[in-house]
């Protein structure tokens, strides 16, 4: 706990020193101290022509951050923003004009499981739609954050995809805790996490964000990558802090 408090204090000093330039997008979500957490205005539902596929997070007016496994072998993708219920008619629908997988993505063992979706048109920010924060140049601090919230519309106990956005609280674990079900050794760009109460992200949750509140900002710490088939054990997440240069480079040159 002392380590976490020290890391958060250091992060606050970095933010005060660098200002908004510390974030990929200075318009990213701020949490009102009086109103408390918002209803995930950055959450993206990613679909193909057959239906819902994955989660993702809006990071700029043109880009959604997701997992590479959600993009691989997909020809036509769509994004819906501004909804908690995937069938909500008030959501905003966008065509995806192009996709970008990490060049070193490996399906097995899921290394470099990160990708970007470029939207065909710019997003207009509203109370229901706003980007999540990508914190730049603070990897050691972010990697010491031990508690997260994961979001997704993945399968529930019924075996069906959830119609409504679900969230679960997770804790970071040592990498060896994810060595079950013949899951491979983790790299430095991945981390292991689980829920103390049981359950966790499941099929359909992939690509969705792991978040933490830092200095009244919703910061994306991880991307849901893969886990055991029964969804009740620890799972693997892509460490966003390891890829901030890759994210910024691809967003800014597009």
From TrEMBL:
The record places domain Peptidase S1 at 16-252
Pfam families recorded for this chain?
Trypsin
Q: What InterPro entries is this protein classified in?
A: Peptidase_S1_PA (IPR009003), Peptidase_S1_PA_chymotrypsin (IPR043504), Peptidase_S1A (IPR001314), Ser/Thr_Proteases_Immune/Dev (IPR051487), Trypsin_dom (IPR001254), TRYPSIN_HIS (IPR018114)
Q: Which domain of life is it from?
A: Eukaryota
Q: What Gene3D superfamilies does this protein map onto?
A: Trypsin-like serine proteases (2.40.10.10)
Q: What biological-process GO terms show up in the record? A: proteolysis
Report the GO terms under cellular component: extracellular region
Q: Which SMART domains match?
A: Tryp_SPc
Keywords assigned: Disulfide bond, Hydrolase, Protease, Secreted, Serine protease, Signal, Zymogen
GO MF, one annotated term = serine-type endopeptidase activity
- Family per similarity comment: Belongs to the peptidase S1 family. CLIP subfamily.
Q: What is this protein called?
A: CLIP domain-containing serine protease B4-like
Q: Which organism is it from?
A: Drosophila kikkawai (Fruit fly)
């Amino acid at each position: 706990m002392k380590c976490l408090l020290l890391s958060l204090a250091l992060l606050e000093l970095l933010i005060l020193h660098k200002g908004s330039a510390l974030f990929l997008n200075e318009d990213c979500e701020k949490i009102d101290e009086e109103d408390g957490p918002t209803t995930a205005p950055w959450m993206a539902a990613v679909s193909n022509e057959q239906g819902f596929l994955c989660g993702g997070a809006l990071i700029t007016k043109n880009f959604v951050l997701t997992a590479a496994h959600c993009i691989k072998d997909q020809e036509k993708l769509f994004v819906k923003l501004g909804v908690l219920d995937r069938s909500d008619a008030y959501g905003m629908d966008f065509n995806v004009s192009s996709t970008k997988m990490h060049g070193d993505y490996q399906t097995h063992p899921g290394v470099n499981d990160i990708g970007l979706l470029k939207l065909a048109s710019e997003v207009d920010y509203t109370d229901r739609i706003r980007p999540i924060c990508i914190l730049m140049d603070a990897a050691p601090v972010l990697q010491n954050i031990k508690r997260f919230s994961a979001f997704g519309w993945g399968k529930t106990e019924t075996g069906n995809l959830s119609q409504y956005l679900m969230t679960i609280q997770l804790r970071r674990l040592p990498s060896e805790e994810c060595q079950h079900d013949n899951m491979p050794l983790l790299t430095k760009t991945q981390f292991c996490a689980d829920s103390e109460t049981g359950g966790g992200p499941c099929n359909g949750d992939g690509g969705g964000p792991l978040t933490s509140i830092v200095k009244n900002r919703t910061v994306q710490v991880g991307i849901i990558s893969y886990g055991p088939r029964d969804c009740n054990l620890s799972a693997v997440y892509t460490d966003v802090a390891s890829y901030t240069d890759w994210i910024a480079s691809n967003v800014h040159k597009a």
